[in-house]
Amino acid sequence: TKAMYNNMTKKSLWKNLNKPNVYLDETARRLAMNYRNAFGRLAQALVDEKQPKKAIEVLDRCMDILPEYQMPYDYFILQIAHAYARAGEIKKASDIWNKMISNCKENLSYCARLPVEKSWGMENETQQNLLYLQKIAQDAKKTNQSAMEQKAGKLFEEYYSRFYQNNQVQDGGN
Using one digit for the tens of pLDDT, what is the confidence trace for 62-77? Predict the structure, then answer.
C-alpha cells in the first residue's frame, strides 16, 4: 500500500480529469472507472491497516480528481462510500449513498412506469439499480448505519417486488 499510496497521491498527474470543460469519451471514462476502483481498493487496504486518515486522504483525492459531474456515479463509487464509512467519515459516505439511492429511485421509477411490452429492454438497467441498492444496504449494515441500511433496503424491496414478484420485467421480450 505504501508504493500505491505514493504513486496515487504524489506521483501521478491527474491532468484535467476534474475540469468541467474537458470532454471524456468512452475510452477515457472507462479508464477513469479503473482509477476510481484503484482509489477505492487502496483506501480499503489502508483502513484494513488501521490508517483511516490516509484512507480519507486517498478518498478525498479521488473525489477531487473524479467528481460526479465528470464521472457519473457507478458501481465503483459504492466502494468509495463504504471506505469512507469504514474510515469514520460517515457524512461523506452518507452523501454518496443518498445520491446513489436517489439516482436508483429515479431510474427504477422510470422503468416501472413503462408498459410491460416496452420494458423488456430495461432489465439490465433494472437489475443494476437493484444491485446498487442491495450493496448500499449491505455496506451500511457492515458499518452500523442502520438508517441508511433501512432506507436502501426498503427501496430495494419495493422495486424488487414490483419487477419480479409481479413479473413486470419480461425475459428478453420472450
Answer: 999 999 999 999 999 9
pTM above 0.85, yes or no: yes
How far, in Å, CA of 66 to CA of 131, rounded? Answer: 22
3-class SS of residue 88: coil
Contacts of the segment 154-161: beta carbons below 8 A, 24+ positions apart: 155/101, 155/104, 155/105, 155/108, 156/130, 159/108, 159/112, 159/126, 159/129, 159/130, 159/133, 160/130
> Residue 100: which of 77, 125, 71, 119 has the closest Cα?
77
Question: What contacts 76, CB < 8 A, 6 or more positions away?
Answer: 33, 36, 37, 40
CB atoms within 10 A of CB 10: 7
Alpha-carbon gap, residue 82 to 63, rounded angstroms: 14
The grid coordinates of residue 47 equal 483502513
Q: Are 42 and 80 in contact (CB under 8 A)?
A: no
* Integer Cα distance of 9 and 97 in angstroms: 24
C-alpha cell at 136: 448500499
To which residue does cell 483511516 refer? 52
* CA 96 centroid distance within chain: 7
